[in-house]
Amino acid sequence: MMDKKAERGTRTGFTTGACAAAAARAAAVGLATGRVPEEIDSLLPNGSRVRFAVHDGRCAAGTAHAMVVKFAGDDPDCTDGAHLTVDLRLLPGQAGTVAFVAGDGVGTVTMPGLGLEVGGPAINPVPRWNIADNLREAAPGLLAQHGVEVTVSVPDGQAMAKKTTNARLGILGGISILGTTGIVKPYSTAAWRASVVQGVQVAATAGHDLVALTTGGRTETFAMATLRAETPDLPAACFVQMGDFLRYALDEAAAQGIGLVVLAVMVGKLTKIAQGETITHANRSEVDTDLVAAIARRIGAAPADCAAIAAAETARFGAELMVERGLGDAFHAALAQAAIDTLTAPDRYGQAFRLRVLVCDFEGRRVADVWSAPVPPRARAGDAIRIGIEHILDID
Questions:
Q1: Range of weakest confidence among 292-296, 313-317, 383-387
Q2: Which domains does the chain have, with CATH numbers?
């Protein structure tokens, strides 16, 4: 069972996939024995075993029902406390078959690019495998002769889904059943990283050969206004809030062979990108104000101003000072070009895609729009394969 006595801030929890698998296992025991247990030892995707409390267990002819309450630990998860509910139905004579159905509160896939069948339930591959493994372990004799239909439901899942990016990914009607290890770590970034990668995969199927990567709500609003003024029918699926996870977004863009990557950023993140950081969280690295000063020097700023910029704590100070001096446009354009030069270096992304860097100020006004050189088709394809391999191997 989850350790609720651990110090707050450190408690781990379980994914929706792990909870659904535990409920499915308990229901399978019910199918096989006629009684759903009140606790179940369930296999997690990472190979460990955890005991879960089981609620609302009941059986009827050829069916069984069980529910597990999700505990997310100290992770701020909108599905904490969700009732992961599984109904099993025997499929006589279909030996070994495990079929999945989206019940109430579980989304349906309506767009390609997620690795799931369009029209099918939003139950990710690892949870599917984990559920099937638990069914086979819990009721091997039953699965040797018959199949099982697995309906996963989450009451109030539609409301939970409104707090996620599911609708943009084409997952409608509820939440996704997720999880690669079964464990949720407090304030984990794994779910966000995964959603960024998934978002880029969906953008690749949108038909525009473009993905716009933004750092948050303000830059996304700015990017949508800018790009839709040029292409009014550009769908929301082309816009991905990458947050601090530029590396994962660009790796996936290269792996998918997307032709144009638009970065919509403000000066702080832009400076970190220019200095070579592709995970831009504040805790990972500090802004290099010497670089900001060098950019200011390059566009003709006064030595005293350059010294002040170098001594400052933030890139924003330098940007605002350059605006005061009438050098704002030149400064932001030069910084954007520095970021492009860094990302398109041969040891980075080379010519895997064309880059466009859109920069806005803190009021959402455009202050720079800089493009990299066009990418020859052969170079783009070759670099995409290279970066895709590095992404699979998780090469830093």
A1: 383-387
A2: 13-184 (3.30.2110.10), 190-393 (no CATH)
Mean pLDDT for the chain overall: 89
HEC per residue, the chain: CCCCCCCCCCCCEECHHHHHHHHHHHHHHHHHHCCCCCEEEEECCCCCEEEEECEEEEEECCEEEEEEECCCCCCCCCCCCCEEEEEEEEECCCCCCEEEEECCEECEECCCCCCCCCCCECECHHHHHHHHHHHHHHCHHHHHHCEEEEEEECCCHHHHHCCCCCCCCCEECEECECCCCCEECCCCCHHHHHHHHHHHHHHHCCCCCEEEEECCHHHHHHHHHHHHHHCCCCCHHHEEECCCCHHHHHHHHHHHCCCEEEEEECHHHHHHHHCCCCCCCCCCCCCCHHHHHHHHHHCCCCHHHHHHHHHCCCHHHHHHHHHHCCCHHHHHHHHHHHHHHHHCCCCCCCCCCEEEEEEECCCCCEEEEEECCCCCHHHHHHHHHHHHHHHHHCCC
Q: What is the mean pLDDT of residues 234-262?
A: 94
The Cα 238–Cα 211 span in angstroms is 5
Is 0.90 surpassed by the pTM of this model? no
What's the pLDDT band for 380 if we cut at 50, 70, 90? low
Q: How confident is the model at residue 391 (pLDDT cuts 50, 70, 90)?
A: very low
